[in-house]
User: Fold this.
Amino acid sequence: MKFNKLAGLGIASVVLFSSVGSVIANSEVAEASFIFRRNRTTKVATKANAILASGNFVKQEKATNGRARIVSINGKRYLEFDRTFRSGEGPDVKIILHRNSNIPLNIKEGNYITLAPIKSFRGAQRYAIPENVNLADYKSVGIWCEEFNATFGYAPLQSTIATANSIKPIASGNFVKQEKATSGKATIVNINGKNYLEFDRAFSSGEGPDVKIILHRNSNIPLNIKEGNYITLAPIKSFKGAQRYAIPENVNLADYKSVGIWCEEFNATFGYASLQNV
Assistant:
């Protein structure tokens, strides 16, 4: 008799938690869920998620309200608007991240990046943030009409978790010229256990074909480099501005003392940055 009761209870539990699992799987935002039954609260386990920054929308050209937040879900970052979000409508409206806390009515190229066309002028929505975007460079979210270069509204962002990304600088150095004028700063950082090479927004280099980002064993990289003294990280993404490159886990950073901008086609180092531990 007792066995039958226990068996019945076990089946009921399986049905209950299977139902809860379906609800969570279909939820748009993976946040901690709770089951309320007979005044008891059971927390359902979720993967490591975090709110990185948030802010309230204010009007610029058109009435805009609601709340924006940047979240990390399973290691990927998203911009989310809550269900109270509202904005005036218009043509060719984009979602942007801007370098300033207060976005002017008319914005200038180089001060922002476009995430995507707006999905809706009302309600909750989510936009993926590319992995190579350094969120430290951007201080606000904007609703921007590209056709008329008009900011409808924006939300200044405040960090909600000071150590959300656990960013630890490892080494850095300033670029110098070798073959072509090269300037700006390179930094190797560790973010949540992974190493990246970052260039700041002041980075600039002369252009050329088949240009690669390399790590070199010497502090000063010669004009022409020899095989075995360097590794290639990736083709260059841009000859100007902030950018990020993943460093493979099997790379021993202690073996490399500089970062180079190298044209493989002509074996010519455009510029390099000697790295110093920080």
